[in-house]
Design a protein that fits this description.
Blueprint lengths: L1 E5 L7 H9 L6 E8 L5 E9 L3 H11 L3 E2 L2 E2 L1 E4 L4
Length: about 80
């Protein structure tokens, strides 16, 4: 299952996300997308996280949505679902 996490802190790393999601199960990939603003600051930061076991992915979504990571509350959903 693919998980979409948005509103991430601009300095979040793949390791930060792996550590947060690892508690719930196996992670197949983490891909961070940083959109830069006009002054080269990060305007928006999001990530796609792959978890091969649906039950584990759903547990991660339920537990991590709204949790703080590096000072920002995570918005975590199944990819393609708002």
């Amino acid at each position: 299952m693919r998980i979409f996490a948005r509103d991430l802190a601009p300095d979040v790393t793949e390791d930060d996300l792996r550590e947060a999601f690892r508690e719930f199960g196996q992670i197949s990939f983490v891909k961070i997308n940083r959109e830069e603003g006009m002054d080269a600051d990060v305007k928006e930061c999001s990530a796609m996280i792959g978890m091969p076991i649906t039950l584990e992915a759903k547990a991660a979504i339920a537990s991590l949505h709204g949790k703080r990571l590096k000072g920002k509350s995570l918005i975590v959903n199944e990819a393609g679902v708002r």
